[in-house]
Design brief:
Number of helices: 9
Order of helices and strands: HHEHEEEHEEHHHHH
CATH topology of the largest domain: Phosphorylase Kinase, domain 1
Strand content: 5-15%
Shape: globular
Largest sheet: 6 strands, mixed
Number of strands: 6
Helix content: 40-55%
Radius of gyration: 19 Å
Number of domains: 2
Amino acid sequence: MLKKKYFKKLLQQHLSSNEDNADKIKLFTSKEMEKATDYYNENRILGQGGQGTVYKGMLIDGSIVAIKKSKMVEGKKFDEKKVEQFINEVIILSQINHRNVVKLLGCCLEAEVPLLVYEFIPNGQKPISAQQSESVRSLVSYFLHSVQENSLFNILDPMVVKDGSEKEIIDVALLAKRCLHFNGKKRPNMKQVAMELELIKASGGNVIEERGDEESEIDDRIHSWETSPSSC
């Protein structure tokens, strides 16, 4: 109960500065989430990774949604820092309105592990699927596997390929790969990421170097992300 009140208070404080966002975010109950996912039935799992598990759910009104059970705040110990990270994720996602970005519908603060509820977009074969091999089940490993196999452009949305130059896309992908290093100390910080993105934008690409990453390191990273209970 204490955790739920803390979540609500912190979320309301953030949302109060933007009434438009406050109206967009719906707070779901834990019972609604249980019914929507058939009590988190494994058959409802869309994908799993270092950040959590995503379930396909159906709300009372019949609408289909994707429900993310985050590992960010999972565990018995109440960690205010992790709570704030979760709230910040909600705030950032609530401000995004783009045709190529899945819309955040709301969240559930009553559950032991807070949940994010997104719109569900069916697109045929799912890139993150329990039916695929272990090496490409999560979004992180799927991306790293595509980089390793030199098939990055096969997983990109056609609009992304059309709007950006090949050099820009490759440089952004290399930057993303560095951000996914399993050792947090080897990842660039947010300031460095922002600076490099600005450089890519200004130069039209060809800015970021591989920095000596070998294929074996990518293999280790894919395995680490798949076997870890949570990201570091």
